[in-house]
Design a protein that fits this description.
CATH superfamily: NADH Oxidase
Helix content: 25-40%
Strand content: 5-15%
Distance between the termini: 31 Å
Strand order of the largest sheet: 1-2-4-3
CATH class: Alpha Beta
Radius of gyration: 19 Å
Order of helices and strands: HEHHEHHEHEH
Bound molecules: flavin mononucleotide
CATH topology: NADH Oxidase
Shape: globular
Number of helices: 7
Structural class: alpha+beta
């Protein structure tokens, strides 16, 4: 993850390419519940203005993140999964009866896969990205952007050119200092 960016603009074509990569990700029943709100320029600045009061902004740990030229706000539509699974070929699953029938919320799983596709595409272009939690005030930001009520908030992908002069451009977070678990740490062969 990259948390320090150059303010260099990113072309609309490049942004579209990143989102196109997201649309190639798999989804349950090919329901494809992904929605992305793209914020650049003043709209991007407005989001930071709403989430970071001036006093907090000056002490914000990731100053280089505030320069990211593009913010992709990721949402998922659970109702599109319920509707898809109510179709004839999926009716036997009972998942078309409502979200409460789903043991695993595949609309969330699929959004994660779509975000990973974006991150890999961004990385392949030698650009940097950070996926981060949607900041408060979530309801106010959603309302200002006109996001329909039934969509669930997933998070935000900030991306752009990494700032080579900043140590925050690579693996700088406290969490990233935790040792990475390897295959032998996660494998349970045959059974737990
Ligand atoms: C679901 C999720 C939420 C995350 N939220 C944040 C966040 O709110 N702020 C942040 O700085 N990093 C966030 N991260 C980035 C992680 O801290 C980072 O991926 C992890 O420390 C490993 O570092 P690396 O991705 O650079 O290898 C998030 C990552 C994921 C997958």
């Amino acid at each position: 993850m990259c948390r320090a960016f150059l303010p260099t603009d990113i072309s609309d074509e490049l942004i579209d390419g990143v989102i196109d990569a997201a649309t190639q990700a798999p989804s349950a029943g090919h329901a494809q519940g992904l929605h992305v709100v793209v914020l650049v320029d003043e709209a991007r600045e407005k989001l930071w203005g709403r989430s970071l009061a001036p006093a907090r902004r000056s002490t914000f740990r990731w100053q280089g993140l505030l320069q990211a030229p593009v913010l992709l706000l990721i949402f998922t539509d659970p109702s599109s999964y319920v509707a898809r699974y109510a179709e004839a070929d999926k009716q036997h699953t009972d998942l078309g009866e409502g979200t409460q029938r789903w043991t695993t919320p595949f609309w969330t799983v699929d959004a994660g896969m779509a975000v990973m596709s974006m991150l890999l595409h961004i990385e392949s272009l030698d650009l940097g990205a950070l996926f981060f939690a949607f900041p408060e005030p979530i309801a106010e930001i959603r309302a200002a952007l006109g996001v329909p009520e039934h969509l669930e908030t997933i998070g935000i992908v900030a991306f752009g050119h990494p700032d080579p002069a900043s140590p925050d451009a690579r693996a700088a977070g406290r969490s990233a200092q935790r040792p990475r678990r390897g295959a032998s740490d996660v494998i349970h062969r045959g059974a737990w």
